[in-house]
Amino acid sequence: MIAAIRSEWIKLSTITVTWVLALLAVLFPIVVTVLTAAFAEDMSPTGLAEVISGTTIVAAMLLGVVASIGITNEFSHGTIRPTFAAMPDRWRPLLAKPVVQIVIATVLTTVIVVVSYVVGGAIATDPTSLDDGAGAALVGVVLLAIGLTVLGYGLGLLLRNSAATICLLLLWPLIAEGLIAGLLSVAGAEGAVKLLPYSAGFNMAIVDPDPDSFGRLGGGLYFFAWVVAIAVFGLIRARRRDA
Questions:
Q1: Contact present, 58 and 27 (Cβ < 8 Å)
Q2: Of 100, 107, 110, 108, which Cα lies nearest the Cα of 150?
Q3: Considering only CA atoms, which of 111, 103, 100 is closest in space to residue 56?
Q4: Domains held by the chain: number
Q5: Which of 3, 37, 117, 139 shows the smallest number of beta carbons within 10 Å?
Q6: Mind giving me the DSSP string for 203-230?
Q7: Distance CA 102, CA 67 (A)
Q8: Domain ranges, residue 166
Q9: At 58, phi and psi to the nearest 5?
Q10: For residue 99, which of 200, 231, 222, 198 has the smallest C-alpha distance?
C-alpha cells in the first residue's frame, strides 16, 4: 500500500494544474483575509473567522477540483491501465489516490486557516478571544475541504470526464441548489432546503448556522453520508468497469 501511495503522490505532484490550483487555493483566502483585516476599521475575532471560513470554502472547492482532475486524467489519458495491470486487484491504487488527496487537502486548509488567522488577527484585532462558534467554523471548513476532496474523487470515478465532473462539482452548489431552494420556497416547502447536501455541508464552515437546518454537526454528518455513498459507488463501479 505504501508503494501505491508513493506512486499516487508522484502522479499528482507532476501535474501542472495541481500546483496552479493548490497555489490559488492557498493564496486567495490568505490575501483576501489580510486585505480585509488591513482596511476594516474594527474587526472582531468572530468577524475575522467569518472572513476566513467564507474564503476558505472557495479554497476547499478548488481542492475538490484537484481531486477530480487527479482521477479523471487517469482515465482520459489511459494511464490507469498500466496501473491496474501492475496491481490487478485495483483496490490499492483506487484507495491510495484519495489517501494522498485527503492529506493534501487537510494540510493546505489547515495552513490557510492558521496563517490567515494569525496574520489577520495581528493586523486587525487580538486573536485570543475567539468564541466557540467561530472556532468550530474554522475546524469545520477543514472538514468541508476533506469532504469536497472525497466528493470530487467519487464523481470523477463515476463520470471519468474532467469537464463534466468539475461542472457538477462547482455548478451544483453555486447554481443548482440555489434554484432548487428558490423553487422549494415558492412551493411552500422551505423545510426541505436543509436536505440539499451542499447546503447542509456548508453549515460546518458557517459561524452561525441556520437554526432551521440540521446544524453544524447534523449538517456535516448528512453531507458526509452523501460523500461516502458517492465515493463507495464510484469505487465499486471502477473496480468492475473496463479501464
A1: no
A2: 100
A3: 111
A4: 1
A5: 3
A6: GGG-SS--TTS-HHHHHHHHHHHHHHHH
A7: 9
A8: 2-240
A9: -65, -45
A10: 231
The rounded distance, in Å, linking the Cα atoms of 200 and 93 is: 31
Return the closest-CA partner of residue 119 out of 40, 25, 48. 48
Angle between helices 91-124 and 132-159 (to 10 degrees): 150
Q: How far apart are CA 151 and CA 68, in angstroms?
A: 8
Could you give the CA distance from residue 60 to residue 63 in angstroms, rounded to a whole number? 5
CB within 8 A of 117, min separation 6: which ones?
33, 48, 49, 52, 127, 138
CB 129 within 8 A of CB 47: no
What's the pLDDT tens digit per position in 97-149?
Answer: 889 999 999 999 999 999 988 888 787 755 555 566 678 888 999 999 999 99
Query: pTM for this structure?
Result: 0.88
Residue 1, helix vs strand vs coil: coil
Residue with cell 458557517: 206
The answer to whether 193 and 203 have CB atoms below 8 angstroms apart is no
